[in-house]
Amino acid sequence: MQGCSVDNWDDMRVFLAVARAEGLTGAARTLKMDPSTLGRRIGRLERSVGAALFVKSPQGYALTDLGERMRETATEAERHLLRALDEGQGTSEQLTGQIRIGAPDGAANFVLPQVVAAIQAENPDLEVQILALPRVVNLSRREADMAITVSPPEAGRLTVQKITDYQLHLAMRSDAPPVSALADLRSQRIVGYIPDMIFDKELDYLGALGLTKVDLASNSVAVQLQLIRQGGVGIVHDFALPFAPELQIVLPEQVALQRAFYLVRHTSDRHSERLTRFATELRKRMSEEIAKLERAARLTASGLI
Questions:
Q1: Is 227 exposed, middle or buried (0-12, 13-18, 19+ CB in 10 A)?
Q2: Residues 142, 270: one domain?
Q3: Run of H or E residues at 115
Q4: Could you report the per-residue pLDDT of 216-241, keeping only the tens digit for each?
Q5: 152 and 275 together in one domain
Q6: 151-173, pLDDT tens digit by residue?
Q7: What is the pLDDT of residues 103-129, one digit of tens each?
Q8: Structural domain harbouring 71
Q9: Which residues form the HTH lysR-type domain (predicted)?
């Protein structure tokens, strides 16, 4: 990168946004700027550097080798900048700035909206973003400030804290023909994950039951819930059941799963008092919200559990 001359941090902010979104449109939404303006800014940055930072195609913007190296450097600089800004907020009673949480879509759809809305209501200058992805969020690339996962990561410079356990059961419409044994499921339309898109072994619910055929599949928990509401049967988070009152738990004694959510952060953020305060509040409120929703599910289970 010899001869590189970057005018200011704002150029790096634009570069990082485009790199993370892998295109102008997503970056424009993040930065609240026009895509054509971002395109001109990237072009100006590449002229300043004297080399291409992205391979541009109809599918999006992919980083060149130089772009990858620049992203690593810019991401590290961003961490230091955010840490410096956090120092100024350390004594503030309220949280401010922007915090992005990556999460699997079960938590993102049924738990996080209530939780982050309550936190933001108490901290009106705080902007919270929920990144719902059917895969593990890449914290090293700063896709998010912190991530919720269904199993603790085993590699990387990460800190992991358990949030809480949660329960899952088989569910189907309450007006469907009764199911009294696992063998009865063979005549039902099974709903589950697309088999080759299960990104974590903890999500392979049906495999443990010996159900290899999935009639209606999606990589989204929220879509699976809607498919079950249309007459299928599948594994549902207990905390999602209050959002689908026409469903009931079936075979609770034969099928009862327990999983856990974990909060994962980049190790370099451990000195950020702002992120630590937010993480503490997030874990507490998520645990309380899941417990509340699961209690509601038990109360409406018609004595089945």
A1: buried
A2: yes
A3: helix 112-122
A4: 999 999 999 999 999 999 999 999 99
A5: yes
A6: 998 877 889 999 999 999 999 99
A7: 999 999 999 999 999 999 999 999 999
A8: 9-86
A9: 7-64
